[in-house]
Structure formats: structure tokens, C-alpha cells
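Field log, afternoon session.

UNIT: design team B
ACTIVITY: writing a sequence onto a fixed backbone
BACKBONE:
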């Protein structure tokens, strides 16, 4: 599965929050705020951030995690953190 999503402008704060979440939830993260990979409980994915576009890829995805569902969860997370969408 491949997904692409536009990120809010506040990439530095998003990245800092992601780092905190990975530590808190025992997620293995290799990379930086441009590209890398992550793994949690047997789920592995890679990501690339180009400008404000996040593209993530995973080969094995549980059937209940559809592209639509993943995008909804990411958007809800952005909203819950009140990231700025424009400057």
C-alpha cells in the first residue's frame, strides 16, 4: 500500500511529536524528517517527505487498515495537535 498526504506547515513540531510518540510506543524509527522507515509489532513501512507531501509505503498491511482509514487517522492526529495548515 502506498499513501500520500499533504502535511501542515509546522513540520518541525510534527517531527518532534512523532519522535516522542515513537519512544513512548516502542516504535523502531530509522531516518529523519526527510526519509526513513519505521516498524511496530511486525508492521514495517518506509516514508519520504518532499516539501509538505508525505509518501509512505508498506508491503503487508492488515486488511482493516485501508488507505482511507489511515488518512483519516493521520488527519485526526493533526487536528488534535492543532497544527497550522497555512502561514
Amino acid at each position: 500500500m502506498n499513501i500520500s498526504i499533504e502535511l501542515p506547515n509546522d513540520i518541525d513540531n510534527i517531527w518532534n511529536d512523532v519522535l516522542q510518540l515513537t519512544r513512548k510506543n516502542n516504535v523502531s524509527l530509522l531516518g529523519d524528517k526527510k526519509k526513513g522507515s519505521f516498524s511496530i509489532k511486525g508492521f514495517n513501512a518506509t516514508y519520504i517527505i518532499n516539501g509538505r507531501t508525505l509518501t509512505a509505503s508498506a508491503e503487508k498491511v492488515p486488511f482493516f487498515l485501508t488507505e482511507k482509514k489511515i488518512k483519516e487517522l493521520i488527519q485526526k492526529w493533526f487536528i488534535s495537535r492543532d497544527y497550522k495548515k497555512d502561514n
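LOG NOTE: The domain at 2-81 is CATH 3.30.310 (TATA-Binding Protein).
NEXT ACTIVITY: expression trials, pending approval
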